[in-house]
Design a protein that fits this description.
By secondary structure, the protein is mainly alpha-helical. It is 70% helix and 0% strand. The chain is built from 9 helices and no strands.
């Protein structure tokens, strides 16, 4: 593909690429960064593009791979490796917030709010929190799978609305 045609095709895809990047990142600034990285990588690897292949698919695959690699790099960077002789850092107590009186009060308040739900919402939500799969909950309650999913969704939404102003401050 001639260089000018390649660049023209790439520029024509920018709006679609931005939408895809936003779908992947859920953040406008990160989406623009991903779009820029993808465009640069596609231009750098123009010679690797094979004629008569799906250009849009090729570019979107580059974008997806960059996103996945960046995500994995971020996870690795956030991992703490304790190299001390006695594993001092691993033995430090971690502040989870639940040990504090404020954290306990929040958990008790959430539990009370869940207890106020009708059985139609409370039972599937509690089972889901305990680790049951949607299909298992549906079978246990004798309900369609979609009904169970929507009840859990609405229970979450009720909790989010109720605790919208609640903020834990350490």
């Amino acid at each position: 593909m001639a260089s000018s045609k390649f660049q023209s095709n790439l520029m024509d895809l920018q709006a679609n690429m931005l939408n895809f990047a936003y779908m992947l990142t859920s953040n406008r600034d990160d989406a623009y960064d991903l779009l820029q990285d993808t465009t640069l990588k596609a231009l750098d690897n123009e010679d690797k593009y094979a004629e008569n292949t799906n250009f849009k698919g090729w570019v979107f695959t580059i974008m997806r791979n960059i996103f996945i690699n960046n995500y994995r790099r971020g996870v690795r960077a956030a991992t703490i490796v304790d190299t001390t002789d006695n594993l001092y850092h691993l033995n430090l107590s971690q502040d989870s917030g639940i040990e504090s009186p404020e954290g306990s009060y929040g958990a008790a308040e959430i539990t009370a709010a869940i207890g106020e739900f009708s059985d139609d919402y409370r039972i599937p939500f509690c089972m889901h929190v305990q680790g049951y799969k949607y299909a298992e909950i549906a079978e246990h309650m004798g309900l369609p799978l979609g009904t169970v999913k929507s009840r859990i969704f609405f229970a979450r939404r009720k909790l989010q609305e109720r605790f919208a102003d609640y903020r834990y401050e350490a």
